[in-house]
Amino acid sequence: MDVRAIRRAARIAGCTLALSLIAFSAVAAGGKGVTWRKAGHANGVDRVACFSPECDAYRGDTVCSARLPVLCLNQDGAPSPVPTDYYNGWAKGNIALSRAVRGDSFKSRGEADAFCRAEFGPGYRMAGHHDGDGGWGWQAYGNIDAATRFWITVIDQPSSCWN
After folding, report:
1. Element housing 113 (H / E)
2. Where in the chain does DSSP place strands (E)?
3. Gap between the Cα atoms of 79 and 99, Å rounded
4. Per-residue pLDDT, 52
5. pLDDT value at position 47?
6. What is the sign of the dihedral through the CA atoms of 89, 93, 99 and 103?
7. Which residues lie across from 72 on neighbouring strands?
8. pLDDT: is 122 or 18 the higher one?
9. For the chain, is the Cβ count within 10 Å smaller at the N or the C terminus?
10. What is the pLDDT of residue 11?
11. CB of 65 closer than 8 Å to CB of 103
12. Are 109 and 63 in contact (CB under 8 A)?
């Protein structure tokens, strides 16, 4: 091999290593993603929230190999039928739970959003911590299963399985 071929092989190996580190950063960070649960239901509206100590919005609370549903949201601009406050906002739409999947099934937020669209149709995406504007809990139309925790994302924290 000549020097140029060796340098090219080294660059390719370096790029491959960098991409591998990005793809597996959740494992390096402890391999956990954030999960929420249903907090209540009244008049066609569900309240979903992060509850301590079972929810860690900063580092994740559930191993990414766990199979849980994804909370999907279609923010269609629906007006709020219920009182709201900072920690109990209105997400302006409808929620649904997907089939159970491993948290590490997705390599990006875009993949998780596409999964929700495939499960429920146009307009759906993975729900986020701040979808009710404040964070920690919010309300939307729906009647999801109260017996299971579900995957959710936090945009400004490394607590999703793909981070």
Report:
1. helix 109-120
2. 32-33, 35-42, 45-49, 62-63, 67-68, 71-75, 89-97, 101-102, 124-126, 137-141, 150-151
3. 28
4. 76
5. 98
6. negative
7. 96, 126
8. 122
9. N
10. 55
11. yes
12. no
Q: pLDDT tens-digit profile of 100-139? A: 999 999 999 999 999 999 999 999 999 999 999 988 999 9
pLDDT for 4 equals 56
How do the domains of the chain map onto residue ranges?
A: 31-151
For 40-92, write each residue's pLDDT tens digit.
999 999 999 998 789 999 999 999 999 999 999 999 999 999 999 998 999 99
The pair of three-digit structure tokens given for residue 25, joined into one six-digit string: 């950063």
Q: Alpha carbon of 112 to those of 10, 32, 101, 102: distances in Å?
A: 33, 16, 11, 11
Q: Which two tokens stand for residue 98?
A: 């997907």
Please state, in angstroms and rounded to a whole number, the distance separating the CA atoms of residues 142 and 133: 18
| Class of residue 76 by CB neighbours under 10 A (exposed 0-12, middle 13-18, buried 19+) | exposed
Please state, in angstroms and rounded to a whole number, the distance separating the CA atoms of residues 134 and 28: 29
Contact in structure between 32 and 70 (CB atoms under 8 Å): no
